[in-house]
TrEMBL record:
FAD dependent oxidoreductase domain mapped to chain residues: 7-324
UniProt organism field: Acinetobacter rudis CIP 110305
Name of the protein this chain belongs to: FAD dependent oxidoreductase domain-containing protein
Gene Ontology cellular-component annotations: cytoplasm
InterPro entries hit by this protein: FAD-dep_OxRdtase, FAD/NAD-bd_sf
Amino acid sequence: MSNSKKHVIVVGAGIVGSSIAYHLSQKGFQVTIIDKNQPASAATGSAFGWITAAVHPDAPDALLRQIAIQDWHRLEQELPALAIHWDGSIKYTTESDHLVGEVTLDQSAVRQLEPNLLCPPTSARFMAIDGSIDAKEATYLLTQHACQYGAVLITETHVSALTQENGKVTGVESSNGPIKADYVVLACGTEIPTIADSINPFLPVLSSPAILLRFNSTEPVVNTLLSGDNFEVRHARNGDLLAAEDYVANKSLAEIAYEAEELIKKGLDHTQSISLQHSSIGYRPVPEDGYPIIGFIDQAQSVYVAVMHPAVTCAASIGRLVCEELTMGIEHDIFTTFRPSRFNA
């Protein structure tokens, strides 16, 4: 389709929505980004920010993850301020599968890479090409540059439904009134089923809570992203130590944070002085069958959905590929098994 003066509403200013908006604005679309709060205020704000290509070859998003690293490198060339840390990752969990691209390390090699690890495992898996990013800062940057290309950001505005005329979607109904557009992209995670219900009531997107903890750290503690049985940590750009934790229903956030801090102090040298600065719970959108949901959901091809987990790893590729589908009217083979139409069968 021609992008000349085409107006696209992107609902959701998380890492996925901001990437789509950036790529569309760059190609000359008139883009309006709408978020019920502020950019990166939902799941993205609590994302650990691990960019990884390590995936089981039978995983639903295996092909998508294989191109993710390359797309993040491309985006970093366009936006150097992204400042992605390409330090690699070390995993030493009970997970048994050796994933494509991972190199097995013995205890000596682990100790050399991570000298502060007090009890290095006898064996670990190293993914040299992995990186990490501050998902919130990346979202701000993508949104900012989308606006520099002409996009309009509307915050503190709730989108409740799609508007229709003569059976065709004409825009969205918002808390500020109706907003018209030629196309609507729903990148608002767990809110997608409610908004899309009037034209497609079969989009099962679940909510999966995850916790992000931020500790101050007076010195570097780890050199890579460490993912072990007891903790998952990396450094932020400002030197803070970030930890990703699973949500436990019968424990408070304070209890989970305290236990994580104790495990970190027992497992890593030079961490006795760390202290919790911030903790948050993010509710990640996860399609019920585990496969991303990407594509048009109406016969007129005016409403496009984009939701998947992990969003941070895939965001750069999703932004580019969705933009190419909307710009050129093509259908990428990589999305074949991701189409929303699978839920209509």
